[in-house]
Amino acid sequence: MFQAWKGKRIFMKTLIVTGGTVDYSFAVSYRKEHNFDYCIAADSGIRFFVQSGIQPDEVLGDFDSADPAQLSQLRSNSKIIFHQYRPEKDAVDTELALRLALEKGSSEIHILGGTGTRLDHMLGTVRLLGFAMEQGKTCYLVDAYNRIRLIRERTVLTKSGQYGDYISLIPLTTQVTGVTLQGFKYPLEAYTLGGFSSLGVSNEIVKEQAVIELEEGILILVESRD
User: Fold this and answer.
1) Taking a C-beta distance cutoff of 8 angstroms, is the pair 210, 158 a contact?
2) pTM value?
3) CA quadruple 29, 33, 34, 37: dihedral, nearest 10
4) Are 55 and 80 within 8 A, CB to CB?
5) Which end of the chain is more exposed for a tag (fewer CB within 10 A), N or C?
6) What is the pLDDT of residues 28-67, one digit of tens each?
7) CB–CB of 76/53 below 8 Å?
8) How far apart are alpha carbons 160 and 205 in whole angstroms?
9) Crossing angle for the helix pair 119-134 and 93-103, nearest 10 degrees?
10) pLDDT at position 3 over 60
């Protein structure tokens, strides 16, 4: 499980699987690659755990979209902690799962199933990444083709460690000032990103190390591949 020192958690990596589109072979491989300390299923995200034979640590949601048989199967396991909510609530299941992960002391959170056909849910989840960022934690929204996070300070990427071939920087705040890009195919120097522009979309790392600098604001950093 999580690493510990003198009885305290010093690093905890948590996986959340929610009810969007999940590529199962990718998700199983991703879980093995990252060796997560804790797993949370949000509503119909239980499907991944049941079908892959993986036991989540906690399950939550209003379960309006969960398969009753799969839900019953997990409920029969006394080791799994359940949280059930009414459908009429002020937060989507992914937000509840993210809040739970942070309450558990997670240092790094990865969300699978947060992308798919429901664009409204995906956009909402991108904004939820800021909830973790405000608490000084790293949170990724991931699928087989994209890895998304929010940044508001100097960030270093490596060509060997990038998730895909393309890097896109999209302002989350009205504008992001002092954007400087080094090691990219399309560099910038103290530029203000904002307004109705696609300037930051589809850049590429051309050196082993690429650096993103910014003065004020928040960027959506998308690493993607075709």
Assistant:
1) yes
2) 0.92
3) 80
4) yes
5) C
6) 999 999 999 999 999 999 999 999 999 999 999 999 888 9
7) no
8) 10
9) 20
10) no
Q: What is the DSSP letter of 225?
A: -
Closest of 95, 134, 110 to residue 37, by C-alpha: 110
Question: Pick from 206, 203, 155, 161: which is nearest to 183 by CA?
Answer: 206
Structure tokens at 117: 């056909």
SS3 59: strand
Neighbours of 90 (CB within 10 A): 6
Q: What amino acid occupies position 101?
A: A
Q: How many CB atoms lie within 10 A of CB 131?
A: 15
Report pLDDT digits (tens) over 97-109: 999 999 999 999 9
SS3 content of the chain, % helix, strand, coil (to 5): 25, 35, 40
The angle subtended at Cα 225 by Cα 221 and Cα 226, nearest 5°, is 140
Residue 143 near residue 180, CB atoms below 8 Å: no
CB atoms within 10 A of CB 117: 8
Give all strands of the β-sheet with 188-194 in edge-to-edge order: 155-158, 209-213, 175-182, 188-194
DSSP 43: G
Longest Cα–Cα distance in the chain: 58
Give the number of C-alpha atoms closer than 13 A to the C-alpha of residue 175, restricted to the C-beta side.
9
**Token pair in block for residue 14:** 């948590």
